């Protein structure tokens, strides 16, 4: 063999060795993401009780596909994505633990795919750290296994931003283009208006900035939005009087969208309140709120670091998308729920994790030791507080759901059994637990008239629910009343009481 052939063979072997090393490193990186996703699923199953019961909004979404109870009134802001997400289990089983387990597994897969979208843009350790920051927030763990849309908007926003950056960096990356479209579709499928806010900076870039102007990227974003929101728009014309009317109704249900500074409301919800409406009472402790200020501060430091290292877009774009995703919930509605800001938290975690990783891997043994110690202490305290808030939120939520279940059992004892209908205070979730339909003659969930309720009450069991000091509907005030658990249960004429 000549010297030339020998040199070629050596070069080939070196190339193969280098390629094998890259593949090995890639596989190890993917395994770390798998480990993180599995840990996220396990924490949900351990800390968020699978038997917690379904919440108010969950009963609305699940009832659309469940044979357990008639479909609840589907108000204008809601989209069908959550119902379809739950359908593979909820359509044949009424087991809440089974549904929770299924959704926890699905949420772990979603987190893995969202972080994988950033492959080639950030080191594995940054992606894993970003995922860990997001996955260990109490609000993420609490809503991951729930039949609610906000977590899925969050992973869609995280994945879509990563795919967008990849597609811009490499125009030949067809998978990234498909990822942009699929991510936009997922967000729009879950909450169309949230999807528009979350991708607004991406649309501005591809339309208004020349070096980002690529027709394929714009097409991927728009096709994804149309694919995800198409059913919602069609339903607006079929059932809500048109798109403008549906948007107007949705605004009214949310208290009227306008300039409403809800920053303090969001802060009050950080102590574990699932819904802060009306949002009054004392603020949570400083320890419970500290992470809410530290996360955007770390993200801002991540942007400065990215500018210095000439990779501005990898930090600026998630920061911009986080800002627009959070804007309507901080400044346009008059109440708060911690789940509303999940997309912002997922996006802020990326530049924040970049800063933390660089601190603990900084050159110089002394500096690195100090950084590791401080980060470890901060993260340890943070996780302790997150667990405490999560535990309290799960406890209070479980207690509330058990009250609904007990009221449903009492209704059955009184003779209100399927086919039946409930109206009044908290009728929607209690009706689902009882296997009844629900209907309201006033308020945001108005779906029938008093005359229709009276006709129905003569043919099937109907009950009106009121608080001890509250007023029942006018048409039900003369119905027999039974006190139970802080409620008054008023029974319609067709109810045949049993066991009294």
How is this fold's topology laid out?
Layout: H1 3-47, H2 56-63, H3 81-90, H4 96-116, H5 124-135, H6 138-143, H7 150-169, H8 174-190, H9 192-208, H10 215-239, H11 243-253, H12 263-268, H13 286-308, H14 313-331, H15 342-360, H16 365-414, E1 421-424, H17 427-434, E2 437-438, H18 450-457, E3 462-467, E4 481-484, E5 487-491
Parallel strand pairs: 1-2, 1-3
Antiparallel strand pairs: 3-5, 4-5
Helix pairs in contact: 1-4, 1-5, 2-17, 3-4, 4-5, 4-7, 5-15, 7-8, 7-9, 7-14, 7-15, 8-9, 8-10, 9-10, 9-14, 10-11, 13-14, 13-15, 14-15, 16-17
Descriptive account of the structure:
This protein is mainly alpha-helical and 500 residues long. The protein folds into 2 domains: 359 residues, no CATH class; 94 residues, no CATH class. Helices cover 65% and strands 4% of the residues. The chain has a 5-stranded mixed sheet. A hairpin with a 2-residue loop joins strand 4 and strand 5. Helix 2 packs across helix 17 and helix 7 packs antiparallel against helix 14. About 2% of the residues have low confidence.
């Amino acid at each position: 063999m000549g010297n030339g052939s020998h040199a070629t063979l050596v070069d080939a072997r070196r190339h193969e060795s280098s390629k094998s090393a890259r593949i090995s490193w890639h596989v190890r990186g993917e395994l770390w993401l798998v480990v993180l996703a599995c840990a996220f699923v396990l924490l949900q199953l351990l800390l968020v009780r699978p038997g917690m019961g379904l919440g108010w909004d969950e009963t609305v979404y699940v009832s659309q596909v469940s044979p357990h109870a008639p479909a609840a009134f589907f108000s204008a802001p809601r989209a069908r994505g959550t119902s379809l997400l739950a359908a593979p289990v909820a359509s044949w089983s009424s087991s809440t633990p089974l549904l929770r387990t299924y959704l926890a597994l699905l949420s772990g897969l979603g987190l893995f795919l969202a972080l994988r979208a950033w492959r080639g843009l950030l080191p594995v350790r940054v992606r894993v750290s970003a995922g860990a920051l997001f996955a260990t927030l109490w609000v993420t763990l609490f809503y991951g296994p729930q039949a609610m849309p906000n977590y899925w908007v969050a992973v869609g926003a995280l994945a879509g931003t990563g795919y967008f950056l990849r597609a811009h960096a490499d125009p030949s990356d067809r998978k990234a283009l498909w990822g942009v479209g699929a991510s936009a579709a997922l967000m729009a499928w879950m909450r169309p208006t949230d999807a528009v806010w979350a991708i607004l900076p991406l649309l501005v870039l591809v339309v208004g900035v020349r070096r980002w102007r690529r027709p394929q990227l714009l097409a991927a974003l728009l096709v994804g939005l149309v694919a995800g929101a198409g059913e919602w728009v069609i339903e607006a014309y079929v059932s809500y009087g048109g798109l403008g009317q549906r948007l107007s109704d949705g605004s009214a249900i949310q208290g009227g969208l306008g300039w409403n500074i809800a920053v303090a409301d969001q802060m009050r919800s950080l102590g574990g309140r699932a819904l802060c409406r009306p949002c009054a009472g004392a603020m949570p402790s400083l320890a419970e709120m500290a992470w809410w200020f530290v996360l955007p501060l770390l993200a801002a430091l991540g942007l400065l670091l990215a500018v210095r290292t000439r990779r501005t877009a990898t930090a600026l774009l998630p920061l911009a998308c986080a800002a627009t995703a959070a804007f309507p919930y901080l400044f346009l509605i008059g109440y708060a729920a911690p789940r509303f800001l999940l997309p912002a938290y997922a996006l802020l975690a990326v530049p924040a994790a970049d800063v933390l990783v660089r601190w603990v891997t900084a050159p110089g043994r002394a500096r690195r030791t100090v950084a590791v110690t401080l980060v470890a202490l901060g993260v340890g305290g943070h996780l302790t507080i997150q667990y405490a808030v999560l535990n309290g939120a799960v406890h209070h939520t479980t207690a509330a759901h058990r009250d609904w279940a007990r009221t449903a059992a009492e209704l059955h004892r009184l003779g209100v059994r399927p086919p039946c209908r409930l109206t009044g205070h908290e009728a929607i979730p209690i009706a689902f637990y009882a296997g009844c339909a629900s209907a309201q003659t006033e308020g945001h969930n108005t779906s029938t008239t008093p005359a229709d309720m009276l006709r129905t009450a003569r043919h099937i069991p109907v009950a009106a629910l009121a608080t001890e000091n509250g007023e029942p509907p006018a048409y039900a005030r003369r119905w027999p009343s039974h006190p139970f658990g802080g409620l008054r249960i008023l029974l319609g004429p067709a109810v045949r009481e049993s066991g009294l």
